[in-house]
UniProtKB/TrEMBL annotation:
Lineage top rank: taxon: Bacteria
Required cofactor(s): [4Fe-4S] cluster
Limits of the Radical SAM core domain: 97-336
SUPFAM superfamilies: Radical SAM enzymes
Entry keywords, A to Z: 4Fe-4S, Iron, Iron-sulfur, Metal-binding, S-adenosyl-L-methionine
Protein name from the UniProt record: MSMEG_0568 family radical SAM protein
């Protein structure tokens, strides 16, 4: 897979003749989401489904303006656990979803204390899937354990990612996450689990998450640029970067080097050199910077109010390849994380940029 094609596809997406050609997709949810889950040359990729994309698929090949790119495309099949329901009638699909081909993902609390319009992250649609009736507001530990068991037994999922909307409490949602982790560990003691939350007010919550059985953690800052943080994340951007740094350092102490990650979005107006320099600092402290292009998603304030557009592929390519080179220089591989987005890699082109660098 060529890295520049992978970056291009991450931004421009793929036009499918029939949306059911990507039976595993998500239309809204926590963070910058809106994608179909496909295998590009056998590697999991979450790519925008875009009816205006120049990329199409024919006979299992990726075409650009009708010409064969040489890249193979396969859909991730609809998992069998989607056909089940809990005893009280909740479809499993509303409790947790398949990401890429082998990751089970759930948002344990689908509401966020920062969702008022003046506070909301402008790229986020966490409550839209709730409004659309596609999920439930709070998943219980027992529900998540039940679905994880089925997804493991029926569909062979190999890791679980649990994220949460931010709660009002000092723990920022970490306590409920820990309860959910414990419940899953009871039924699947060996399943690697990543948790994702904001820096908790009491850093002891990080130890609690690890003690519960989580083996990786994502503490997602999205941008290290103060102006971008305040413009794009007026609520979350008010959390000082010093709090993030303290949480990352404690998380590295508790979870270990390269078991901590953070999303860094490209396309929020930050300086690319500063973005790369910030990513290198994170790598040096043991935190994996997961580089993802900003995706304009209908239903978000970024698109519906601000008219934001996707970043230029050349900018994404440059930042991604430079960060991939720094990761390689430090021997930091996403696949070495026990679970989570860095381990999965489908939402980033870092993996293909690393391979391209390694091959060159
Ligand atoms: S990178 Fe994270 S959000 Fe993207 S598909 Fe993988 S687990 Fe899901």
């Amino acid at each position: 897979m060529t890295a520049d094609t992978r970056v291009d596809v991450a931004i421009l997406g793929i036009r499918l003749a029939d949306p059911s050609d990507a039976p595993v997709a998500r239309r809204a949810g926590a963070g910058p989401s809106d994608d179909g889950h496909l295998l590009l040359d056998g590697v999991g990729a979450a790519v925008p489904l875009n009816p205006r994309s120049p990329y199409t698929v024919s006979g299992g090949k990726l075409l650009l303006d009708g010409a064969d790119t040489g890249m193979g495309v396969e859909a991730v099949a609809r998992p069998r656990f989607y056909d089940l329901r809990t005893a009280d009638g909740v479809p499993y699909e509303q409790i947790a979803r398949l990401h890429s081909s082998n990751v089970l993902a759930t948002t344990v609390v689908q509401t966020c204390v920062r969702y008022a319009e003046a506070e909301r992250c402008r790229f986020c649609a966490i409550e839209e899937s709730l409004r659309a009736g596609a999920t439930v507001a709070v998943k219980t530990p027992a529900q998540i354990a039940e679905v994880a068991r089925a997804a493991h037994d029926l569909d062979g999922i190999t890791q679980l990612v649990m994220t949460t909307g931010t709660s009002n409490g000092r723990d920022r949602g970490a306590t409920h996450l820990a309860r959910c982790v414990r419940a899953v560990r009871e039924v699947l003691p060996d399943l690697p689990i990543q948790v994702q939350c904001e820096p908790p007010g009491d850093l002891a919550s990080l130890q609690e998450l690890h003690d519960a059985g989580a083996r990786s953690i994502g503490i997602h800052v999205e941008s290290l640029d103060e102006a971008a943080r305040l413009a794009w994340m007026p609520g979350k951007g008010s959390v000082p970067l010093a709090d993030y740094r303290a949480a990352w350092a404690e998380a590295v102490r508790v979870f270990g080097w390269n078991q901590v990650s953070t999303y860094l979005l490209v396309g929020l107006g930050e300086d690319p050199d500063e973005l790369v320099a910030g990513a290198v600092e994170l790598i040096e402290m043991g935190v994996y910077p997961f580089i993802v292009p900003f995706r304009p998603l209908a239903g978000t304030l970024a698109v519906d109010v601000d008219g934001a557009v996707a970043p230029r592929p050349a900018d994404v390519y440059r930042v991604t390849t430079e960060v991939a080179a720094a990761l390689r220089a430090h021997g930091m591989l996403g696949s070495d994380q026990a679970a989570g987005c860095a381990a999965c890699g489908a939402c980033s082109a870092l993996g293909s940029c690393s391979s391209a660098e390694a091959a060159s």
